[in-house]
Amino acid sequence: MKIGKELLAKMPENYRNDNITSTSAIDMLMKFGDVESAERIFRSMKTKNIITYGAMVKGYVGNEMFEKALDLFEQIDIELGDVTYTIVFNACAKLCNDRAMKIGKELLAKMPENYRNDNITSTSAMDMLMKFGDVESAERMFRSIKAKGADIYGALMNGYNLNGESWKCFKVFEEMNEKDIIPNEITWNILIGACSKSGMLHHCQYIVNQIPLNIQNKIRTQNALIDMW
């Protein structure tokens, strides 16, 4: 923090209007939790691109200032990139009030088709919808994605857990097996959570027997298994 702030103080004025340099400075300050200094740099910039706006919105989200994140998002009058969609979906999911639901759903409706097949953007959109309690829309989005990775399946299952439909996770797990999609550590832990909530012991034992040893040895997984039993 000391080195970063000293370097920023010495930075020549002409560099402050370089989008790449200023965006990296904003990102640094936001990670330090120095939101006010990041805002000052942002305001001082004569021209701002979507990456700069994205850094600010992401910084607000990282500092749990979700309303400010949405305030700034509503000021953006340039074309959004996939990263910005992801960040705003995350902000809406965290805030999860009427305003966030309205902004999130409107943004999703406008999202270009090619972004829907980006696993990171789609995962954040599905997570948002599930936190809104809109399981049907999340399921429709899931079905529309052509190439699904473990994270997409994990987002769907986590949403079922959040909405009291844990039993649906077992069907999703079967689909993963059929399509040779290997669960990652996060997905296994979501499945263990589904077992814990469903009370379907025969399914639980079947799933536990398939967890690879290297995943079983992870502390988080061991804690989840202890909680389940």
Automatic annotation (TrEMBL):
Tell me where on the tree of life, at the top rank, the source sits. Answer: Eukaryota
The processes (GO biological process) annotated in the record are: RNA modification
Spell out the residue ranges that the record assigns to PPR repeats.
18-52, 149-183
Q: Which residues cross the membrane?
A: none
- What's a Gene Ontology MF term here? RNA binding
Protein's recorded name: Pentatricopeptide repeat-containing protein
Organism of origin is Rotaria magnacalcarata
